[in-house]
Amino acid sequence: MLPPVPRPTDYGVSPDRGFLPAENPTQCLSHPVYDRWERIMNNFQSLLLSKRLRTVIDRLPIIPAVHLETEAEWRRAYSILTFMAHGYIWGGDKPSERLPPSITYPLLQVSDHLELPPVATYASVCLWNFKPIFLSEALDLDNLSTLTTFTGSLDEQWFYLVSVAMEAKGGPSIPIMLKAIQAARDDDCATVTKSLQSFAQTLDELGTLLVRMYENCDPHVFYHRIRPFLAGSKNMKDAGLPQGVFYDDGSRRATWRQYGGGSNAQSSMIQFFDIVLGVEHRPTGSKKDETTSESELEQGAAPRPRHNFIHEMRQYMPGPHRRFLQAVEGVANIRDYVENNRSRTELCIAYDACLAMLRTLRDKHIQMVSRYIIVKSRESRSLSRTRRESSSDHVPMAKGIASVRYDQPHTADQPQRKKKMRGTGGTALIPFLKQARDETGEPAIDDWARKLLTGGRRTAADAEIAFESRLTAADLDADEPQIVGLAGAWSMEDAGGGLCAY
Ligand code: HEM
Ligand SMILES: N[C@@H](CC(=O)c1ccccc1NC=O)C(=O)O
After folding, report:
1. Total-model pTM
2. Which CATH fold topology does 8-285+308-386+422-474 show?
3. Which of 166, 264, 313, 371 to mutate to test the pocket of ligand 1 (most atoms within 8 A of CB)?
């Protein structure tokens, strides 16, 4: 007996809006005890800018979650508490290593309820943080606004809203592809083909939406003003959180914790696309068909479980969404169906078109990461080098959040540790993203298409990154570049030694 094809509504997934809530996020918690939180949120950016947020939160009493009435309220509580937590941690001259009970206590309660980690996630800043401008109109990018931002900037709003609009646009492809799974079971080739054609079209439109990021989110504002607030507490030693954050809930169970920061890798939609098409992602650095390395086998070592970042990100998705992906994984059959029907040309072309569109989406994304992170990080590094060279004294840390340099191994007032270069700028991110991109093309049916889609071809993104990350003589002498993603939970060992930094 085959397991039933999952019903999205059983997992809090909307047939129209996908992983966005079926009802718009609530904009205010109804019970008067939460007025204090809401007042902080009403003044959030000015409290942060004037560096008063910590004092206000330190004076805040513990307000437990018992008065939250609806699921929408639990979601709002989670969203605002994670904004407050990150504002508290990153909104001072130095990051705070302790989160006080007024935040920790209710945050642990709501995180437990929603089966999410107590940290800012894609759910808290994107999925549950939007409102339509006109209620009667669709959730298009031009009809969306955010509920909360750290900076009050259009750039930050836009950064979140592009993702929201993408979720809304991609939502309807969920029931379409679930129907295709049923159709494949019934050997209804026409329906599978039609569904794949519609899905390819949607993936193409998602690519168009993704590049609208450039319209209103400036890379400088993103890198220096927005991104620092989204950082987590894992691998954050160099930013001033060597042990992570102490979640002080006022009890004896208070502990140090480490979590990855917010990332779109936490989007269930993109993972759904991979699953339904049969795209598989391996741990960064491992090749196709590779199980255990030869040298390991020679030494008789037991296979070492390797870190798979994309899978790990499921722990940062709301519980029901995580379970939905698991259920879809149990029934995904499209790849097998197409492989078993290679003579049906239209079906194969439609399937390969989906892979090509998803690959193109990832290619556009890599180009974006280059412009928003790699280039900006290089600029900062060469600036701090110039400053060091022009001064024999220590360079004081600049005041404010922009100086939180969590992608750099040294602060200006620390002594220089020279380490061997591990790769060009961006080695941590780019091999990971390129591998995910190339894996997207691997299932292609047509031999020629597979060659084209699995990395044999140099794309615009490849050329841009090669150009941006070329080494200069100064780089060889400089700090080791450690450009990592916010959610980046890599270590050299996890990465298989050498491919990935950090
Ligand atoms: C300025 C905009 C963006 C930047 C700088 C950026 C940066 C990154 C980085 C650094 C990663 C590596 C994982 C990590 O976070 O540690 C990542 C992963 C990812 N990002 Fe983005 N991202 C941006 C926007 C988006 C948007 C709008 C999407 C929507 C589709 C997206 C989708 C993904 C996905 C799916 C991954 C996981 C890797 C994969 O599946 O290929 N990103 N992003
Ligand atoms: N991974 C990105 C952050 C990122 O993409 C992100 C973080 C929180 C919420 C949404 C995100 N992506 C949005 O469009 C970074 O490392 O800067």
Report:
1. 0.89
2. Methane Monooxygenase Hydroxylase; Chain G, domain 1 (1.20.58)
3. 264
